[in-house]
Description:
GO terms for molecular function: DNA-binding transcription factor activity; sequence-specific DNA binding. Belongs to the LysR transcriptional regulatory family. By secondary structure, the chain is α/β, with parallel strands linked by helices. Helices cover 40% and strands 20% of the residues. It has nine helices and ten strands. It has helices at 8-20, 23-30, 34-48, 64-90, 103-120, 210-217, 233-241, 251-260, 291-308; strands at 53-56, 59-62, 96-101, 125-130, 145-151, 159-171, 194-197, 228-230, 246-250, 273-283. The strands form two sheets. It has an eight-stranded mixed beta sheet. Strands 1-2 form a two-stranded antiparallel sheet.
Amino acid sequence: MKIERLPLNAxxxxxEAARTESFKGAASRLGVTPGAVSRxxxxxxxxxxxxxxxxxxxxxxxNETGRQLAKDIDSGLERIATGVMAARERARQVPMxxxxxxxSFMQLWLLPRLADFDAKVGGIDISLDAxxxxxxxxxxxxxxxxxxxxxxxxxxxxxxxxxxxxxxFPVCAPALLEQRSQPMTPAELAHHTLLEVSWDSPQxxxxxxxxxxxxxxxxVDRVAPPQRxxxxxxLAMDQAIAGRGIMLASHPVAMDRLESGxxxxxxxxxxxxxxxxxxxxxxxxxxxxxLAVARFIDWLLSEAAAFDQGTLGKAR
Length: 316
């Protein structure tokens, strides 16, 4: 079977355009013009003989063929990146690990704590891969690639280390509560914009949202569904901090913002919705991790246990 060689520049332009569903966004990331991206994508479509985007007056959207090709290209690029990283590590003196994790969890929970790792343990370079992927990474086989996933275990083809569970509760900017003389009731959410985070759930598990929370609070028929939906916690949280609505937040990613005071819980400790999902650290299914990587795993599990038990100090 003859394998056709496709133009790499066109594949790269398509991959970037697929991530943003925007030729303009892809052009910004690639440092070229939107017209150049459009021509590269059109060249690829002509070579394949099928359209990859549905083009509208207000932009472009991936069609089913384009969506599947984007997944295949991302998988191939990840394997290439893994091979390059492995080659780089073999030439380095300092051990390195690559950690893949959901973007919002990485930004709002993990990154604020990495300074503690450097201070207490150190001696290892960490490459962070913020990924919404629900699949496992391509293990290098040397224990130097780790993944944090939010889902419902067990995860096949990996060693599973539970970090902590999750619970959801409303949060908002303090300004929304400043003029109140009485505590807010769930029914009063009808007077506020509801912000919700939603994405494709792994393993067929439905991610609980406002509908489930309102039902548990007994006001599902008196409060309208969420008016704003986001795929990333960071985006929704920025809107909540700005006072543009009330967000249904995940405990791990909201806790630091609550401690800093930029967000508050309008119902206090009441009306908490348990999530069926957990945060898990996944490591290669076989083999022992290098000593430096094992130390990072031990630190992360210890940090997660302290957080889970509510004993994590503010001065970390």
